[in-house]
Amino acid sequence: MGTPDFAVPSLKALHNSGHEVALVVTQPDRPRGRGQKILFSPMKEAALELGYDILQPLSVRTPEFYEKAAALSPDIFVVVAFGHILPKEVLSIPKKGAINLHASLLPKYRGPAPIQWAIINMEKETGVTAMLMDEGLDTGDILLSAKTDIYSKETSSSLHDRLSRIAGDLLILTLSGICTNSVKPVSQDNSLSTYAPLLKKKDGLIDWSKPAEEIEAFIRGMTPWPGAFTFIGGRRLKIFASDVVFIDSKGDPGTVTGETRDKLYIATGKYLLSIKEIQEESGKRLSIKDYLRGCGVSRGTILC
Fold first, then answer.
1. What is the 3-state secondary structure (H, E, C) of 67-126?
2. Cα–Cα distance measured from residue 98 to residue 82, given in angstroms and rounded to the nearest whole number
3. Crossing angle for the helix pair 42-50 and 8-17, nearest 10 degrees?
4. What is the CATH number of domain 201-294?
5. CA–CA separation, 286 vs 267, rounded Å?
C-alpha cells in the first residue's frame, strides 16, 4: 500500500526479493499539475510496469475493501506513504501484521512531514523505521531502523530520494527477520516523541529575525515544496539555496547589506545570508548572478 514516489523503491525491492505481492493498493487517480490532468500515482505506474493487480479504493473503511483484502489471506501488509489510516478491522487481516516504513528515527518526527522538519531543525542524522502498525499515528512497535547522516547542503528533495532507497533495503531485512523470528518488536518511548506536522504553502515564509544558520536550513528543508519565500517591494521571491556568511549583521533583519555582480547579502538575526539561487514570481529559477544581471537590488532594500 503506497502512493507517492517515496513508496516505489519499496515495491521494486519486494519485486526483486522473491516475495509474492498479491495486490498493490494505491490512492485513486486524481487531477494534478497546472493543467489538472488526471494522472496515475507513481505507485500505480510502477505496479503497472511490474504487472501487479491494483486496487484504488476511495476509502479503506468500507466492507467492500475489507472483503477484498481478507479474501487474499495475506501474511503481511506493507504500508509506505499510503495516505490512509488503516482501521483496527483492516489491521487485523494479515496473519503477521502490517508493517509501516516511516522516514524518521521513531519516536522522533511522527507525522506527515518528517523529512522536511529534520532538516529545518538542523538534525545531524535521520533514517527510516520499520514498525508494526497499530491504530495510532506512527506509534507502533519498532522492528528495525536504519540511520543516515544529513549532509550539509542536503535539501528535502535529495534526502527524500536517499531515504526511499534506504526504506526498500530495510523492508527486505525486516521481512527476512520476521520470517526467521529474529526481529522482535520494541515499544516506542512516548516521552521522546516529537511531531512533524504537514507543511502548507504559507509555512515557507522566511523569518529574517532568526540566525542565518537556521534560515539556511529552513530554505533547504522547504525545497522543493512548499518553497522558502520572501517579499521585495510586494513581489514574491522564492529562494532555493543560500550560504551563511559569518560576519555580524549591520542592519535590521531582512535588509540588503551588500551586493556585487554575483552576490547578495541579507542581514539576519545573527550573521549574513548570501543568496545563491532565486526565482521571481512567475519567473525562472536563476543563479543570483543571472538574477542580479536583470534585476538590480540596492543596499538598504528590505525583504519581508
1. HHHHHCCCCCEEEECCCCCCCHHHHCCCCCCEEEEECCCCCCCECCCHHHHHHHCCCCEE
2. 13
3. 20
4. 3.10.25.10
5. 21
- Written as nine digits, the cell of 256 is 540588503
Q: Where are the domains of the chain?
A: 5-192, 201-294
**How much is the pTM?**
0.95
Query: Which residue reads 519567473 in cell numbers?
Result: 283
Label residue 134 exposed, middle or buried (CB < 10 Å: 0-12, 13-18, 19+): middle
The whole-number average pLDDT for the span 28-47 is: 89
Cell of 72: 487474499
Closest to 171 (Cα-Cα) out of 16, 44, 13, 42: 13
pLDDT in tens, 209-267: 999 999 999 999 999 999 999 999 889 999 999 999 999 988 899 999 988 888 999 99
Position 202 confidence tier, pLDDT thresholds 50, 70, 90:
very high
**Residue that has been written with the C-alpha cell 522473491 in this structure:** 18
Q: Are 289 and 256 in contact (CB under 8 A)?
A: no
Q: Which residues have CB under 8 Å from 98's CB, separation 6+?
A: 76, 77, 78, 79, 86, 91, 132, 133
Strands 235-245 and 77-79: unpaired
pLDDT at 36: 81
Distances (CA, A) of 213 to 17, 99, 153, 304: 43, 37, 12, 18
* Topology annotation, domain 5-192: Rossmann fold (3.40.50)
